[in-house]
Request: fold
Amino acid sequence: MISGIRGKIYKLDLGKVFLDTGSVIYEIYISFKVFEQLKEKHPNEEIFLYIHHSISERTQKLFGFLEEQDKSMFELLKSLSGIGESTSIRILSFLTPHELLQIVKNQDKKKLEKIPKIRGKTSEKILFEIKQNIHKFQGFENLETSEENFTSEEELALLGLIQLGYDEKTAITQIQKIKSLKLSNASEIIREILKT
Reply:
């Protein structure tokens, strides 16, 4: 499985970037937000994309993100019933996690339908599925407003713990308890907490 790729932009299209690693050029699907950010990069500038490697019986696809939080959000969205990869990447093209959660809380169907190709039953399905799983998304919203001074790896560990079923307050407390261990990545933090 591919989890990240570092290289230079060989070609940039709306919805795709072709990344040259020196020996291989990878075709990677991206959101409109990532497309806009990559347009600002210098042609010879090396970039790094977090990758979701999608494998099915018929095909393989790579989805790229500049922020690991966006990758986690994409993976959570597409795991919900009836919300696939195309819809998930489209949502991330136009909304931040915080904006999406506000739309769901307000059941603001009209605002959600401003996203291209999200209409009628599709928007209703998105609102319903996220509302039913709102506890899994709460960590994304709180990361944007949190004053806990967590490192990026601690923030990812917080998201992971919430997705494992921890409530946010407990997860924050557990992470604070082991801060002194200075663990280097989210996986180590989660493993240490699960031991307790």
Remarks:
- The chain has three domains: 4-65, 69-133, 146-195.
- The CA atoms of residues 7 and 21 lie 4 Å apart.
